[in-house]
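Thread: Newbie trying to understand structure tokens

Hi all, I'm a second-year student working on a class project, and my supervisor (Dr. K.) asked me to get a predicted structure for one chain before our next meeting. I've only ever worked with sequences, so writing a 3D structure as a token string is new to me. If someone could post the tokens and maybe explain what I'm looking at, I'd be very grateful. Here's the chain:
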Amino acid sequence: MTPTPDVSIVVPSRAGAARLPVLLRALEGQSNRSWEAVIVLDGDIDDSEQVLASYAHLPVRTIVFPENRGRVSALNAGFEAARGRILARCDDDLEPGPHYVARLIARHHDEPVGVVGIYLNSFPDSPYARVYGRPSDTRFRSDAYAGSPDAAWRYWAGNVSVTRGTYDRVGPYDSDYRAYGWEDVDWGFRLHEAGVRIVLAPELATPHHAAAQSVESRAKRAFHSGAARRIFEAKHGNEHLPAAIPPGRSPWNVLVRAIGRLDKTRLMAAAERLDGRLGMLPDPLARKLVALTVEGSAVSGYVHADQARADF
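---
Reply by user tm_fold:
Sure, no problem. This is what the structure looks like when written as tokens:
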């Protein structure tokens, strides 16, 4: 019988055949080899299982759902099957550095904590990346590291870890989150409510290769996130969050609310048109238009939550 690993890396995946080799090659190069990966294929629609078969020399276990059950079901199945003392949730589009496992172990050597590694989003050269993607990503990380420790739960996402004991104490991810968004934030909030300190670990910041690459894809994620926020509020209230619909009469907030009145179809059409024009606009104007579209999309998803679909 193989020894119990220090770290179990739980990976929910759907249509990940092209992404998983990058992750697995990164895990193969770990300086500390006391790990296993539990990869849950949420319906194998692209022969991901065959791709994983070529990594049989690694401590990888695969769970295959016969059909799509959603990311929450995949996460819960993976964590239930995991054997390690430390449980890491890792998206299939990440590329951990060679000391990822060793640094996880170091972070969990003492008191129970929840550990967050911020994404380092990777963008191909494009007008979207230049005017919004990269600047927004840099600002997000800066705000996260400068933020209040009491708000760290808001950054719980696809590169996080706890001990098995802490996971069992908080419980599985909530199956009410059936589409895109907020299942991670919900779990982070529950961790915070349980009195577990959550820390942001700069040494675990990890390249992320499937960030939104266009206004349309970023707006779609914002729309679904806005819709999923409704589930969080129904469970936990809204006093822990900034307003879903920005108040006041500032020109910016008025414009965001106006965009938020658009339904999903018109919103995505407007985002697609903006994608086609970004390269023709001055960068400062283009950046503001993308920001308005993204913020308005989150409001639209919140307002038109009934239109949300599992597009991811």
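A couple of things are worth pointing out once you decode it. The chain has two domains: 7-208, 215-307. Strands lie at 7-13, 35-42, 60-65, 86-90, 113-116, 119-121, 159-163, 197-200, 206-208. Feel free to ask follow-ups in this thread.
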